[in-house]
TrEMBL record:
GO terms for molecular function: metal ion binding. It comes from Aristolochia fimbriata. Residues 1-103 form the C2 domain. It holds the Pfam family C2. It comes from the Eukaryota. This is C2 domain-containing protein. The lineage of its organism: Eukaryota, Viridiplantae, Streptophyta, Embryophyta, Tracheophyta. Signal peptide: none annotated. Keywords: Calcium, Metal-binding. Gene3D superfamilies: C2 domain (2.60.40.150). InterPro entries: C2_dom, C2_domain_sf.
Length: 209
């Protein structure tokens, strides 16, 4: 499932049921994504057609499937009145990445109670994990970091097959080989000394009598 940041733009609402009979109600919103909850400002005296033009940010993980918006009427001295709610599925947003402000129905007890205008934007979390492609492996030996004396910088774990490592070693002309291994969230560098020559044992020629 996608992970990243959900940006919610609340424009306004229209045709809400006015729960205050003697005056215009004071609506506000409670926005919920999984266990995260945020409240809008109170649109004092705006009644059935409030405007907010407020933006809210949520951290999205694999558990987030919908955005719930509950509309309440703020009352002084008594419990706030429930006006209605809207539920917006997030699946289409994860595919599109951005949904321009659109109208969603507000319901109460499964009956239409007005509409609310919401815009959505999803910003995926940046991921740095990657694998070498064949071209990088083929050119690895021609640009051996040991030639410059400094290790190259990697942004994430690197996965090398044994055949790729062997190919890189065969192409590296330096006497110091840099091996890159996957060490988890941060990539570590291990340097192996590659000697100029190897000691060899030569068998003495046997003298023929």
């Amino acid at each position: 499932m996608p992970e990243g940041t959900l940006e919610v733009l609340v424009v306004g609402a229209k045709g809400l049921e006015n729960t205050d009979f003697l005056c215009n109600m004071d609506p506000y919103l409670i926005l919920t994504v999984t266990s995260q909850e945020q409240k809008s400002s109170i649109a004092s005296g705006k009644g059935s057609d409030p405007e907010w033009n407020e933006t809210f940010m949520f951290t999205v993980s694999g558990e987030a499937t919908e955005l719930k918006i509950k509309i309440m009427d703020s009352d002084t001295g008594t419990e706030d009145d429930y006006v209605g709610d809207a539920t917006i599925p997030l699946g289409p947003l994860f595919l599109e990445g951005n949904i321009s402000p659109a109208i969603y129905n507000v319901v109460k007890e499964e009956q239409y109670r007005g509409e609310i205008k919401i815009g959505l934007k999803f910003i995926p979390e940046e991921r740095h994990d990657r694998s070498f492609n064949p071209a990088e492996i083929e050119n690895f030996g021609d640009d051996c970091p040991a030639n410059s004396g400094k290790p190259s910088q990697a942004t994430g774990p690197v996965i090398l097959r044994l055949s790729h490592v062997v190919n890189a070693l065969m192409h590296c002309n330096s006497n110091r080989i840099q091996m890159i291994t996957n060490t988890g969230p941060a990539t570590g560098f291990h340097f192996l000394e590659w000697p100029q020559s190897y000691p060899t044992k030569r068998r003495k020629n046997r003298e023929v009598p």
